[in-house]
Amino acid sequence: MAQSSPDNRTLDWTRGISVFTSKLAPAGDIGVGFAILTVVLLSVFGNGMVLATSYRRRRKMMGSELLCVNLALVDFLGCVCFYPLSIFSSFSHAWQGGYATCIYYGLGCYIFGLCGMFTIAAISVIRYIKTCHGFLYGANVQLLCVSTWLLATVWSVLPLFGWGEYVPEPYGLSCTIAWRRYHTSVKDAVYVICSFVCFVLVPVLLVVASQVMILRKVYHISYSLTMHGIHNNLKNTEKRLAVMFFCISMGFIVAWTPYTVVSFLYIFHKQDTYMAPAGFVFPALFAKSSHVYNPVIYFYFNKAFRQELKVMLRSLCPGMVSNRVEVLPAPVNQGPVVPAIQIQLQELQQGRVRRADGGVGGRVRGVISLVKSHSHSEKSCKSSSSAGKEGPLCPSCCIPKSRVAPLVPGPGSVHEFLPISS
């Protein structure tokens, strides 16, 4: 590795202090540590739920959802593998581990940052092709996810071979690419410029252009259907998907833009005196916030994720199980008017139930329709009562029956039973 000697880099000659010593006040170090700790806890919880939910419905996932899972994996592993080192250094008021951990932290965070950027760009481009042109068939999304990791890793390891370097941040509690080595050599200048142009500017332009075209296409389709008086669920579903991926993409860009701008301006200054150390801290913390709100976007816009999460929570916490009965108005029939009462019953049972097809489920949902019978037997029952005959209860054919039909019908899944009281 073409790295300079650590002994020559340990001291910041402009201040006479170690580059690994925090340049913030002790209270600022503690605040940074708690801020990163909060990000880690929220991200691990949120992205962990996304990964667990995705694993449960792995056979039903679409290509774009798999890329979102890849993004959740990036956020989860980044918070688990690297941020604890920054938290410990913040509470210690100095970077811990020297250049070995600095290279580990800088390399890992750069890999995961580039992988997240490539994943966002892939999501936007795939959604654009499928929405605006509709000819993307048989795309190997798994191979695309692996490619994002490989490309990010190959570009990130180049500083280990002399193309750039990983050094502490100006405030001393984190490590990143040595952006100021742009002035050192041609190789470093090429690496820094390509990092910004090819791996930041180009992906951002692809994301913005794709999302704008997607929203424009969805708006025109929705407007056309509305003008023709067509109302369908497909239109609403496509709009929700478009808004979800737009929020994910633009949220990532907005979070990382301040840090990118500060780093880019840092190139043109040979010394870090143009900005106070706190000026580097806030963009870095704001960029880390992107790990937190992506899971919120998933569960807010994706109904399938929410339903799967509820099933998983009920299986883990049986005490959350409850029965819910909802009374719905009777549907409008095209035939003769028949008095009817429709009750939707959602029974959430403790434990797991065995379905007719041999599978195992965690809940039973069904629709109970209580419809008065107008058969010949009922008429005979009425005539008997009008004649003054009193006897046992009317036969079961005269009593209103309840027809139970599960929401997912199957063989032998429809039953009739008598109500408790008529």
Protein described:
Helices cover 56% and strands 11% of the residues. A five-stranded antiparallel β-sheet has the order 5-6-9-10-11, with no helix packed on it. Strands 1-2 form a two-stranded antiparallel ribbon. The termini are far apart. Residues 1-8, 11-16, 321-328 and 334-422 have low confidence and may be disordered. The chain contains eleven helices and eleven strands. Strand 10 and strand 11 (415-417) form a beta hairpin. The chain has helices at residues 26-56, 63-81, 83-92, 98-133, 141-156, 186-227, 233-267, 277-288, 290-301, 303-316, 376-386, and strands at residues 11-12, 17-18, 166-168, 175-177, 323-328, 340-347, 353-354, 360-361, 364-371, 401-406, 415-417. The chain has two domains: 6-314, Rhopdopsin 7-helix transmembrane proteins (Up-down Bundle); 319-383 and 392-417, no CATH class. The chain has 422 residues and is of the alpha+beta class. It is globular and about 70 Å long. Helix 2 (63-81) runs antiparallel to helix 4. The longest helix has 42 residues, at 186-227. The chain crosses the membrane at residues 30-55, 67-91, 103-129, 141-163, 189-215, 241-268, 280-301. Its main location: membrane.
